[in-house]
Write a structure and sequence with these properties.
- The chain is of the alpha+beta class and about 550 residues long.
- Among the domains are: about 120 residues, Dipeptide-binding Protein, Domain 1 (Dipeptide-binding Protein, domain 1); about 220 residues, Dipeptide-binding Protein, domain 3.
- A 9-stranded mixed beta sheet has the order 1-2-14-24-13-3-12-11-10.
- The protein is globular, with a radius of gyration of 23 Å.
- The chain starts with a strand and ends with a strand.
Amino acid sequence: MPRSSNPIRRGGAVLIVVAAVAAAAYGATGVAATPAEQTTSNAQAGGTLTLVLSAGWDVLDPATTAFTFARQIMQFIYDPLLRRDPKTGNIVPGLAQSYSVSKDQKTVTLRLRRGVTFHDGTPLNARAVIFSFNRILSPKTRSPWAASITGPVFRFRSVGSHTVIIRLKAPFAPFLDSLTQVALAPVSPAGVARWGTAFGAHPVGTGPFVFESSVPNDNVVLVRNPKYRWAPAFYSHQGPAYLSRVVIRNVPESGTRMALISRSEIDVVYNPEASQIPTYARDSKYKIVVGVQSGMPRSIVLNTSKFPFDDRRVRQAVAYAVDKPAILKAAYNSIGTVGRNILSPAVFGYAGSVARAAPSYNPARASQILAAAGWRAGSGGILTKDGRRLEFDYGSITGGSNFTIQDQIIQSNLKAIGMEMNIQREEQAAYLADLRAGKWSMAGMLFVATDPDVLYTVLHSSSIGPAWNTSFFRNATVDRLLVQGRNTTNDAERQKIYLRVQAIVATEFPYIPYYNIANPFIVTARTQAFKTDRQGFWDIYDTWIR
């Protein structure tokens, strides 16, 4: 279903829900819709927007980072070759003013916009695009996105200065979606030549904002690109962005973030204290903007290669033991919906039938499963089997009261059925590295995506280590189906394939999805046309300061 931006009034403030179904995105709000938010027809150029995030990033090089916040910042430094229309979800032109796919589905032709320049003044052309692809492929780059090209692509070639021909090894359904991602956006060859391995600290793209400065993992300052004339047609205006300057800050402490927005010292806060959102929604000085995130929901990762989750029955018990509605209410103030499937509802191929059949909170059933698996009561209420306690380590990220609350609920739920969960917290960079390395028996993860091929990333056995199969799940049937899903371009057939994958995963429990993410932002009333995209990422190209 197409997404829309629906303003909703709560008290004196506007609650803007960007979602496929607005009411579902915010839970049972019980509020009525109002006329659309002020458009950009009377927008004023100038001003600085200060946006505060709850965690950091590593580098601003699309070829080398997988950090979610880095990807969000880079969307305004670089332009993807193709884009997803936020209203329809359709793939539309980006830096490529048009594209076509051959009848055999194995040749993609990109015709680039003319007159586009990188921030250093050098031209965007076919050579720059192919350079950027080859840079991702280079072993020296160690790009986490190399598989997006090595898997499907046979070769690249240029025809003239502004046409790129991509020959695929076989039909590959997710490839156009990959081209909508900033990870595959062109970078300046001259910028890479100048900065080398330090390019991520000196990014040069074609986007509406130019990198000015940064303090690593603390802040990034962007300034308007006055030459920008190639925004996608779905935006409300063309030409340079309205904002003169954008400051993005990393403030991990939720109390500090809330203090900054309460004094209106900043314009936008991401991941506010969920319990305080209703108060801000009643205050006319603020708006609440909620962006629904697509891809893999926030999920419990069960490491199928480690005790005790190398036993499917123990994984199944966790699925019944966790009180997902309680997490939604306590940790996220009922913003979003309960996750019951490995795909979120906004992704093509989502199987509602699988979600409806998923285990619901039933600790008695969880205890029955463990008893049938041979677990017996031990000291301190913790189950034992063959002289070993049902105890394990759980990895989580530091910062954010919502993480603390959800972790405590999960820990309490599992303790109630005789499982001892020891919480270990790490900063984001260390956490992601240790998660991929399989440090913990249980952890948490999400993955933002707009195509069901995200399941290849989190489930295929080849994704263990180099990608994000952090459950270390191995299933030959799932592997085969995921390859078929990539090589099938008929939507109806693809949907059947991914239905089968979701059905298998729902009985094997490598992940326990529990939260379909809706990202809330508190925005000052002076900040106009602050939006989110199909991924729930913030979008400030049309934004202006009143």
